[in-house]
């Protein structure tokens, strides 16, 4: 009479381990894709916030709307007069300079620092404000993580906004509004 052992054979254990490893690799890849998508979504939310910030500033200073027009890429030196708080007495032109300085500082990450390194803002951002009467178009571009088929491959969004940075990783967020 033959005695058969009870339990798992080595082949069964190996097959189970292969199935487990394939499943773990799939979960790890799913986690990586989810983190990248979350970061891309966060950057798009930031771009929307920055655009809405400058539009709100423009609404408060609508007397010189055309002065906000331009192409911007990061922070610059602070203007000579800081227009902060209700006690600050600033002209419309000084307010425009202060608004654009604050806005550029934010989207380039200068408002958030770790030591001397900018840690906030978008990755290699460029922005454009186009004003035609009371019609305003604000465009924000930045570098995303992954390549996309609908990325900013040419530097022109409209006749005025000509961006220097292009490529398959560029993202675009654009708002058209009317300021009355």
TrEMBL record:
Name of the encoding gene: pilV
Entry keyword set: Membrane, Transmembrane, Transmembrane helix
One Pfam match: N_methyl
Organism from which the protein derives: Shewanella jiangmenensis
Transmembrane domains' residue ranges: 7-28
Top-rank lineage group of the source organism: Bacteria
Name of the protein this chain belongs to: Type IV pilus modification protein PilV
